[in-house]
Amino acid sequence: MENYTPMLVQYHSIKKKYPDCLLFFRLGDFYEMFYEDAKIASKILDLVLTSKNAGKSGKIPMCGIPYHSADFYISKLIKNGYKVAICEQVEDPKKAKGIVKREVVRVLTTGTYIDETNPEARYLFSLSIDEKFGYSFIESGGSVIFTNENENETRIIETIFKLPVYEVIYPESKKEKIKEIFSHPILKIKNITLTPLDDWHFNYEISRKTILDTLKVANLSGFGIEDLIYAQKSIGPLIDYLKEINRSDLLHIDRISFYNDSEYVYISPAAINGLEIEKLINILDKTKTPMGKRLLRYWVLHPLVDLNEIKKRHQIVEKFVKDKSLRENIEKIL
Fold first, then answer.
1. CATH topology of domain 123-263
2. Using CA atoms, how far apart are residues 235 and 197, in angstroms rounded to an integer?
3. Of the candidates 41, 25, 38, 168, which has an alpha carbon nearest to the alpha carbon of residue 99?
4. Which of 33, 44, 150, 212 has its Cβ near the most Cβ atoms within 10 Å?
5. pLDDT tens digits for 79-89?
């Protein structure tokens, strides 16, 4: 390290903590990328790859973007399956003694990125693999974690296919099994980012404590998952990962919901493709907000079974159809 400039010594110390991320390193009004990060980013973002003096080590590859345009560039990298770590100056350069202090303030991944330009939902999915599969998922920026468990691998594959899953976290020791699952043709085409975590995250006792501490409850009976051991094993890692990504406590997460497949008519992936249901959704979609668009898609892909729930939904629709002023007032609000 003695051959590097002080700034690059600082860069290396930060990059070492985020080896799987493209590091956006704040320098004044720009985010700079160096070495392999610069080569990758310059190709995807169509940036000029230049070089920077690294001291006695010579020159290194470099590219940069204006910080005020970062969202556009980050979005492109995320959509290409990369993680981005945002490293900011955390003290006033005028008051700094020596090199300005910098640290990573957030990490953006395919499953946690909130894309303001895209109304489609984006889920982070956690998969625990034992005698049964435990799984949980949350929408990016969402407050509810959905969870269940199943011993049928095919149903797990079909569940992931039906949901807008962009990233899956899993125990590192199960890497081969994960490769096998995600080599299935219907999952292969989704190009889901697979992120391994240390196995201890999926330990039942550790995971359960994480859940209880996060929700500030004594048990999980109120959420209907007290006896779902395998489901619980998947929730703790999901919370741990989100804390690490967001660099903060998850005060917005306030509920766990049992994801009950039996409440819906099962539509196989083959039926979704064969009946061109995605095209049907596009034709039906006259929604005004991103949330409405996501809800419509979810409802079409998850038809209700319970007759009373179906009638309730019909009654609400009928109210809007008959009451023009109510419909117009709500449209104005939206």
1. Nucleotidyltransferase; domain 5 (3.30.420)
2. 13
3. 25
4. 33
5. 888 999 999 98
pLDDT in tens, 286-307: 888 877 887 888 888 888 999 9
pLDDT for the residue 116: 65
In this prediction, residues 260-277 reach a mean pLDDT of 82
Instruction: Say how far apart CA 63 and CA 41 lie, in whole Å.
Output: 8
- With a CB cutoff of 8 Å and minimum separation 6, the contacts of 15 are 23, 37
SS3 track for the chain: CCCCCHHHHHHHHHHCCCCCEEEEEEECCEEEEEHHHHHHHHHHHCCCCEEEECHHHCEEEEEEEEHHHHHHHHHHHHHCCCEEEEEEECCCCCCCCCCCCEEEEEEECCCCCCCCCCCCCCEEEEEEECCCEEEEEEECCCCEEEEEEECCHHHHHHHHHHCCEEEEEEEHHHHHHHHHHHCCHHHHCCCCEEEEECHHHHCHHHHHHHHHHHHCCCCCHHHCCCCCHHHHHHHHHHHHHHHHHHCCCCCCCCEEEECCHHHECCCCHHHHHHCCHHHHHHHHCCCCCHHHHHHHHHHHHCCECCHHHHHHHHHHHHHHHHCHHHHHHHHHHC
Domain boundaries, the chain: 6-108, 123-263, 269-333
CA dihedral 44, 47, 53, 58 (to 10 degrees): 50
Least confident piece of the model among 80-94, 129-143, 231-245, 258-272: 258-272
